[in-house]
Design a protein that fits this description.
Pfam families: Ras. This protein has about 230 residues and is α/β, with parallel strands linked by helices. It contains six helices and six strands; from the N terminus they run E-H-E-E-H-E-H-E-H-H-E-H. The protein has a single domain, classed as P-loop containing nucleotide triphosphate hydrolases (Rossmann fold, 3-Layer(aba) Sandwich).
């Protein structure tokens, strides 16, 4: 198998919808609720580049694997649930340190998922950035008060820049890197991934100029098995 030219990694607490986001984009569907065990990946061809996208487990027992999957990453998608403020706090407290093994010029996207469940979010019919019809409104879950606002995500992005000792003038603006999505309806999912793919290409070129990338070897084995768990929209 050809080695990927670059790597994107999704990090975040369990049940924020990392797997669902990735499957919505790659398979054009909203999957049954699943919990990732260890890690799983997809390969995406973007222009002439092969990009691996890694889905990591949010459960505490798999936490230590995150730094291995982040090794040499060109971009990290830090994912939270807009309806649960603690999931945003966990990104800083538990997951940011795992990105220390990523490339020095790694890009960071802050993604608030499950806006379809929020009182302020788009309806099930909204397909901004997605393809295919959303689920019918029959039996839809009750809407929840939105606990995380876009400015909270922007504040976290700026904290990350300080943690990484990066100058705001040298990286994409927070407004470009903070997204609100719905894996269920497809809202902003294409926009998220394809914005990152375009931004990752220059990172790949810089990494090539600096020498062979550090990547997780994906040739010997496929994705690990998944187990069912609670809601992961």
């Amino acid at each position: 198998m050809r080695k990927p030219d670059g790597k994107i990694v999704l990090l975040g607490d369990m049940n924020v919808g990392k797997t669902s986001l990735l499957q919505r984009y790659m398979e054009r569907r909203f999957p049954d609720t699943v919990s990732t065990v260890g890690g799983a990946f997809y390969l995406k061809q973007w222009r002439s580049y092969n990009i691996s996208i890694w889905d990591t487990a949010g459960r505490e027992q798999f936490h230590g694997l995150g730094s291995m999957y982040c090794r040499g990453a060109a971009a990290v998608i830090l994912t939270y649930d807009v309806n649960h403020a603690q999931s945003l706090l966990e990104l800083e407290d538990r997951f940011l340190g795992l990105t220390d093994t990523a490339s020095a010029d790694c890009l960071f996207a802050i993604v608030g998922n499950k806006v379809d469940l929020s009182e302020e979010g788009p309806g099930d019919g909204g397909q901004d950035g997605g393809h295919g019809p959303g689920p019918a409104g029959v039996g839809a879950a009750p809407r929840l008060p939105k606990q995380v606002q876009p400015e909270d995500a922007v504040a976290l992005y700026k904290k990350i820049l300080k943690y990484k000792m990066l100058d705001e003038k040298d990286v994409p603006a927070a407004e470009q890197m903070c997204f609100e999505t719905s894996a269920k309806t497809g809202h902003n999912v294409d926009l998220l991934f394809e914005t990152l793919f375009d931004m990752v290409v220059p990172v790949i070129l810089r990494q090539r100029a600096q020498g062979p990338p550090q990547t997780v070897d994906i040739a010997p084995c496929g994705p690990p098995a998944r187990t069912r768990s609670g809601c992961c929209a």
